């Protein structure tokens, strides 16, 4: 189904339920992995994904079409994931960075995590980056999202995103090299 038709159906009361199921089917896996790269935990990613789709459903009538539907949903997912981290860190009375470190540490016991020690090191390296660089790196490295789409999602110029990605790679390389020399 074309995005324009899907959007029309989502805004139509008699076709909305079918269209929303189609939307979930189309985007749930990509959005899940985007969220999972941010929050780390499978269970937390599921919760944030559910909240994302609830927000999409509730706000579809206010979607103006200035960007692609896909970009709009990714923006919602990103904001939901970042809000989740901030809220959870506040509940635990720790910083966002400490919460991320805790989430990475918990990956070792996460039955849904299929990575190894190298993946854990990479996650630790990513966690040292500023929030924006983390997002850009995760979206480019893990999901291969094009800069053009990323610029719609993060509402930043393609040039700034390319620079962020390049800087993120240098910082990750430096982190990993320093870890192996210790």
TrEMBL record:
Pfam families: Sigma70_r2 (PF04542), Sigma70_r4_2 (PF08281)
Domain RNA polymerase sigma factor 70 region 4 type: 121-171
Gene Ontology biological-process entries: DNA-templated transcription initiation
GO molecular function term, any single one: DNA binding
Entry-linked SUPFAM superfamilies: Sigma2 domain of RNA polymerase sigma factors, Sigma3 and sigma4 domains of RNA polymerase sigma factors
Natural source organism: Hanstruepera neustonica
Designated name of the protein: RNA polymerase subunit sigma-70
Family: Belongs to the sigma-70 factor family. ECF subfamily.
RNA polymerase sigma-70 region domain boundaries: 23-90
Keywords from the named record: Sigma factor, Transcription, Transcription regulation
Entry superkingdom: Bacteria
